[in-house]
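Notes, Module 5: Reading structure tokens.

Key idea: the token line is not a picture. It is a compressed description, and you learn to read it the same way you learned to read a sequence, by spotting repeated patterns. We will look at two proteins. The first is printed below with its tokens.
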Amino acid sequence: MSAMATSAPRPASSRQIASPMPRLPPVTTARVSCRSIPHFVPGDWHKSTVGAYGTGRRTERRPGAPRNLKSGGRSEDWSVTRPQGSGGGTQYRPITMSHDGGRTETSVDRIMAEGRASGSDRRSVVQGNVAAATLVADIVETTLGPRGRDKVVYRKPEKEEEGLDDYFQVTNSGAYILKNVPFEAPAASMVARVAAAQDDRHGDGTTTATVYAGRILAAAGDLIERGFHPRTVIDGIDGAVPLIDDAIDVAAVPVDDGDRDRVADVVHTTLGGTVAEPLADRLVAWIHDAAADGSLDPETVHAESLRAGSLSDSEFVDGLVLKKSFAGNYQPSSLTDATIAMTTQAVTASQQVGGRVESDAGADAGKTQSLQVSATDAADLQRFTEYERGVIAERVQPLVDAGVDVLLAANRVDEDTVAHLDRHGIAVVRNADEARLRALAAATDGTLLPHLGAFEASDAGTVGGITRREYPEVEQEAIFLRNLPGNLASVLLHGSTWMAGWEAKRNVNAAVAAAASALETGQIVPGGGATEMAIAGHLRDAAPGVGGRESMVIEAIADAVEAVPRLLARNAGMDPTDAILDLRTAHSRGEKDASVLGLKRELGHALDAGVVEPAAFKRGSVYTAAGAATTVLRIDDVITGIDVTVSESP
């Protein structure tokens, strides 16, 4: 029996159909440029219900139909549309798409007055964001641990006097990298900013937080590809955070006020493998003296770097060190029982001549006012000069009456004012760091004034001794303020290059922050990935009790957290797979501090080896990573090209 020949119905279109063209392939690359994150172009997502083609209709591909036909400069997919729940005939309608730089234009774009949106292709937005955020973790993960590698970060010179070697920085600081690399992809930029905030809050732990976020998002991307809804993944992440908190509590070891050994372990762990490691013992002894009462405020400890000598020449000072010189001709080499005045505002003749502007508090706000003077002859100019000098004398007279020896300003002080203060034996330090002046004011019972017009004798601070020291080999000076009434300490780090001193300064600040955190919270946790292994084990044990798809998310997060010991082993030159298997076995036997000892390139017990971290750092990294991951996963659309004008409210 011969088969009857049937003709396929013709498409309902009057366009001339051109020859078939191949479909644009989906993006499958594992690494995505941080400057341009292409969207994934799914191959068959148009099979789902699409409202643009009529409510209640299901769209599917006609068997044997070409995948892409070109007509009128647009790519078209011919598909079959059947009304659901009816036995009606089959109609063929075109699904129009145009591709621009890896994204798909949809009907959403055509209803917007300006800009473009990703429209119905929302799963590609999620996957693109995940790829971008994962790239951020890829950048910094090789810096993790004492055997981590360095990065070269190019930057613009901040000051004209910086040398050619200052156009780039060699560092393994995750915070510095994330704050200075210009990510253009919104998701990458968000993760970088959120992770860098870990450094602002805790002083360290940025790389760990970034690795957590990147690996959690990578696991989330895999789950979404398997059909999980992003909201389900977010709920699973939110449910995992308290479980991780519980695991950290179990792993934590108490630190008593007098437990000097554990504080020393924290400092040695932080400085291990860094350029400042040779200073660890001296820094520990210095911190013990500074924290004699069992507490340490990081705001009262300041590190300064000097491009002179070697690291072994570094100085630990009981007081404040300013890498500044005195302005003007009055250059005292030392002062005893000195009285100081401090201000944040510029002290200039032009601002003083501009008039006294009363603030809400009734004091002189000293606002700068542009002033143009026209002199017809030398006598007019002389009268103006005398008037200007009179205004300067009136402004600084309260300093003279109070017996001030040194004026420290966080801004500029003009030459006329400096010369007037010189004649009264008042030394001037200008353009000092405002944060250091704020700490100095607290330690000297003084007041950091917003302007000198509000100065009173009670605002002055007292310093037991001030010393000026010259470093002729590098043409620099430093001013030492010692014997202060309050707590204030400094480290002057010497280095043969600017970069070496800067990196040592960053390391010392991180060690001080870690010691302060351990003393404040009274808790430390085993380092070397031991805490991550404990967290992963706890999550796997708790996941079955959660139930539903959230339990699978929690198990995926357990695998993601194990990335830290895996990276520590890899960066130390060990086999990461063998290391993870051995650590799982050790933890299953109850060895809760089994870890990767990176400096020794072996597995061991973190507490016995003195490899510990502040518990607050670990908690902060978890909270930061979870917040960054859920923020990225909540995004399902990207709208670009809109000109947004921000205007102030009347």
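Here is the second protein, with the sequence above and the tokens below, as before.
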Amino acid sequence: MIEERNKIIILGTIFFIIGFLITIIAPAIAPTQPYQTRSITMINPATIYKTITYTEKTGGGVYSYSELIDKIMSQAKFFATGVTALPLAMTAVSEAIPLVTPLSAVSSSGDRGVYQISYEKTFSKTNVQVEGVDEQDIVKTNGEIIVVTKPDRKNIAVINASSDQVASYIKIDQDFIVRGLYLVNNTLVIISSQQIYRILVYPPPPIIEKTRIYIYDLSDPSRPVEISHIDIDGGFSGSRLVNNYLYIVTNMPSFRFSGGNISPVIPSVNESPIPLSNIIDTGLYLNFVNILTYDLAKNRFDVKTVTGGFVEWIYMKPDKLYLVWRDPLVYIDVIYRLIDQLYMNRLISEENLTEIMNMIKKGDLMAAHVIINNIINSIPGDKLSILKNISTEVVDKTIFNVFNIDGLNITWSGSFRVAGHILDQFAMEEFENKGSRYIIVATTVSKIVVEPLIYPIITLPVVITETYCNASYCGNATTTRIITSRENVQNISRVMITFLPRVSEAYNNVYIVDERLRIVSVIEGLAPGERIYAARLLKNVFYLVTFRNVDPLYAIDISDPYKPVVLGFLKTPGFSEYLHPISNDLLLGVGLETSLGRSLKISLYDISDPKNLKISSEILLQGGSSPVLNDHHAFTLDSRHNLVIIPGYAIVDNSSATVFIIKYNIDQKKIELIKSIYIVGASRSLYIDDKLYIIGSDIIMILKLPSLEELKTINY
């Protein structure tokens, strides 16, 4: 195996040197060649998979569509035939996968601050991670208008906040569902995507989702006017808004695999293919990531397409965008390691090895798997114990791609890769130190161990008694049959072997990366056996919550980015899944307590001394849960009245409640539940001046601030 790899490396080096010399010498000795044209056929999803033909310029070193196709096909052949089955199998180990998965959940994950506008109304904004960078949500307000997505995700109610009445409704196309809203002055942005149910079969059906962005003018709330809409290929991954510039990210596969055939796919916007000059090559070609930038002030847009993986999380500063995806190429290493061990244990011959490697080089993993399986199943039963020594492990990795942002202009500045995967967007955050910018990243690292699982298959004679009946009577008949049984016996006539991945004990790492995308420091092996549940950066201290049996809150000093230090940690029952700063010395955690049944836990941490963290106050709500645990947009903070509003469900005083209003006292470092309300489907809250709006599934309850007296309800 090692010799084979060395041969490949040597040959590759020779070809690289020859190619390099040709690029240097050929232009000097060869006459200038005119551009040639050739036609290539690709699939355009915008035309419902009709083939379209491009005439492109080639030669002269111009990067062409055909070169892109070659790169896509080289990875597509490899992944479409089996490698991608490995991470799917890993997922199946930890959780059950339903047969049909609806892709209709709103992706979201932060702060409702105070926003003062020209007509002197004070109202809450969507709770976000980074100040000055807005995020999509299902409810928005500008102080004069409230827009609310109805539970069907197809209708939006426009509410006049002056009269507290529904002014109008907006209905989107029936094939789409609302994924999020933005409201900039009187301009409403509706982000929607096709409601697709993906059946988990192999090969997967040739489906490519589409994201549609609607732009409405709400100058007259009673008569919404559609300004335009944009269709872009790919499923919605996330969005951000900076000033008047909206950034929307979608994902789509770069190829279709159906009936054994692989077809490259190119993305389009408004049924027009993305220009070649707008495609950014990152070296990974399994997916296209489309970044649509929309200038709301001038009603214009641009699209950049990035070759890469499947975007899981987005982080953005006003001038930088981070797109995060798992590194799928990690799993290729598993294949090579398993083959290497089979060869080293003399379970496959040199001839077999050559045949298998040839199949892999062609990208035909399925054929390679068949060869390996046939060889292993021909091993005599007395030598099967050798297989127990064969196992390998890999560590999952995550790639962070960094883009510089300037209005409509987006440029890729590079990427960095770390071990593990991140929990959510709060597990990464930029900070400054002595004029330099850094990003801190917290990951949970899982070792994926791949080892053989042996099923002995035996044949045994079994006596079976069957009952049969006819029109007049019933009787019994005894027969002897040969049946197949998977029992652990010594007389094995045949064996079935599969290599099953399993996730071993996890641990956590913290990385700090500089502006040149270099890892400058790392804390490794934090909280072994646990995984990260929450993270938050406050000034020079990075707070992490991990969990297995107890809830450790870690405080990590990053005042010196090159030497981060764990200052201290606090262990309590349960765990927090969302952390929100209340003041410089207080941090609020929302999570669960599971030691004595399930309870919603709201904890107030005293972080005045990071070396000596304390819980200063805590509220437990029996049988509780909250959307805040998975979606920080559901959290509302009213710092004017020291109130926190959390939707959810719990039993309070033997009655069901779905909204919890908590008052905090900074001086006393205390929190107290002062009101609980029951509204069906409570999901959000917001305030405008002295009115607090609680959003339910079909009604909006209005309370007076700060007394919390009920004023009225709006049916929408």
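Summary for the second protein:
- The radius of gyration is 30 Å.
- The chain has six helices and 49 strands.
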